Amino acid sequence: MTEAPKPIVFLGSSLDDLRAFPLAARREAGFQLDQVQHGGEPNDWKPMSSVGPGVREIRVRDAAGAFRVLYLAKLADAVYVLHCFQKKTEKTAKADVDLATRRYRDLLQEINQ
After folding, report:
1. Each residue of 9-52: pLDDT tens digit?
2. Do residues 38 and 1 touch, judged by C-beta distance below 8 A?
3. For a disulfide at 1, which of 21, 27, 40, 92, Cβ 3.0-4.6 Å?
4. What is the pTM of this model?
5. Which InterPro entries does the entry link to (predicted)?
């Protein structure tokens, strides 16, 4: 993990959503994103191919609940945070997946113009 850190680009309301996390969850999410910025892997993640190829979900567990950060790091120029949210049920809510998918599509459209 010695490469120069990639900038983080927060799409839509994702930065505000992350800031709404409880302090401990916010710190943990920030630490995990820092690892990604430096070319590493988050400690707890899974692929979110339902959103788009290369999209991953950082999983943060906290006393206040389960929190998720959906991001795309495979593009060379930046780490794109698509969506941050608190998970309320076992399965990720369709609204959260749909929002991240829309931001992913918009991002690719913007990049390919």
Report:
1. 999 999 999 999 999 999 999 999 999 999 999 999 999 999 99
2. yes
3. 40
4. 0.93
5. HigB-like
